[in-house]
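pls design
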């Protein structure tokens, strides 16, 4: 080889190394989204729902955005925070993901926040819902919801519909503490009285002793927040103890009447009034298509976790397009702030200041329609910002 040719081949090699070395900054490398989800353990329905939504999103919207191939990696953390953190580290360092996403429960999101900050990687929370999560890193953006956002409307509704005395009943961790606090303040502000505050353990709870306490306290209503996956067990024990026939009303956030399990809950769930940001029965054209396509593909009904994942993908795709495929943590983050688009739940906005979601919250009642149980929306609070941020 003469010297000129040799030099040229060296330059070509160097350029190739530079391209490979700079990895995700180059438009010919795939854009990688690292989803960390609970696919096993007691939050496994959250992982199952979000993974199904990601697959549907990519089947319908393709795997190339602005000329860039988009690759989704899904890893199971079993909802164990130390595992989430280790996987996030591996995804950032080894897989060189452009975005982290998922986070089935609050402690897993908290554990990962410092990694997002240190590596300047956008972290899209598509499930966990404690208000404070978005304050743990400037790189966190949320497409799920917050418990204060979901809770204030049902507290307000209860106070205005003849309910005077309430016992609160929540899972004893971040989102439950948020639900308890915001139910209490809104309900009291509207003249209601809290006559008991019950917290149940997050892991494998036996609700029986706590339900006995509710029966003994005899409030007008019990207000319940439990994370997705626990609603069916709660309803079963509520019915078994005869509480559904005791005159004590059951009101809740929609996590309890979760569309993933609602259809199997039976008559005990009928008439339960609850508030949430998504119902599979939401009567928009977009949602009807979403539910039909989702069920055709997966053979189960989408719940609010699926919609959080679906909108997370939408948000990321929009951000990739806004950077013309170039990506980059800060550029993606800037592109996500202020995004406004229609979701199967209704219109959503990413608040540019808080990076949290602004959305409609619906008051719903569980009804049987065409042989199935649904959360039927009958009232709405429009464009609700997280009330947790103002405090
Ligand atoms: C959280 C988890 C849930 O399954 C849910 O329904 C609400 C909140 C959480 O851990 O943040």
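designed seq:
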């Amino acid at each position: 080889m003469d010297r000129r040719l040799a030099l040229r081949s060296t330059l070509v090699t160097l350029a190739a190394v530079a391209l490979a070395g700079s990895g995700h900054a180059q438009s010919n490398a795939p854009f990688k989204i690292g989803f960390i989800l609970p696919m096993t353990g007691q939050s496994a329905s959250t992982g199952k729902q979000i993974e199904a939504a990601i697959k549907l999103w990519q089947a319908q919207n393709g795997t190339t955005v602005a000329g860039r191939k988009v690759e989704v990696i899904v890893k199971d953390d079993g909802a164990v925070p130390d595992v989430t953190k280790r996987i996030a580290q591996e995804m950032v360092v080894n897989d060189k993901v452009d975005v982290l996403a998922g986070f089935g429960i609050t402690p897993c999101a908290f554990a990962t926040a410092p990694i997002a900050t240190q590596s300047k990687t956008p972290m899209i929370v598509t499930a966990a819902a404690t208000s404070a999560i978005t304050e743990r890193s400037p790189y966190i953006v949320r497409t799920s919801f917050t418990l204060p956002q979901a809770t204030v409307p049902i507290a307000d509704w209860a106070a205005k519909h003849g309910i005077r005395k309430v016992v609160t009943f929540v899972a004893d961790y971040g989102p439950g503490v948020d639900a308890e606090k915001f139910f209490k303040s809104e309900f009291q502000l509207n003249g209601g009285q809290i006559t008991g505050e019950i917290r149940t353990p997050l892991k494998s709870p036996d609700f029986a002793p706590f339900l006995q306490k509710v029966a003994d306290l005899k409030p007008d209503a019990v207000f319940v927040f439990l994370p997705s996956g626990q609603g069916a067990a709660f309803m079963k024990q509520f019915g078994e103890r005869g509480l559904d026939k005791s005159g004590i009303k059951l009101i809740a956030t929609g996590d309890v009447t979760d569309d993933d399990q609602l259809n199997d809950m039976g008559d005990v769930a009928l008439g339960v009034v609850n508030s949430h940001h998504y119902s599979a029965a939401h009567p928009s054209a977009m949602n009807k298509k979403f539910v039909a396509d989702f069920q055709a593909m997966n053979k189960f009904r989408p719940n609010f976790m699926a919609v959080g994942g679906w909108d997370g993908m939408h948000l990321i795709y929009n951000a990739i397009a806004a950077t013309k495929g170039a990506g980059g943590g800060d550029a993606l983050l800037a592109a996500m702030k202020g995004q406004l688009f229609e979701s199967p739940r209704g219109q959503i906005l990413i608040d540019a200041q808080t990076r949290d979601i602004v959305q409609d919250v619906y008051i719903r009642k569980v009804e049987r329609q065409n042989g199935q149980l649904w959360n039927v929306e009958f009232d709405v609070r429009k464009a609700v910002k997280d009330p947790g941020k103002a405090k």
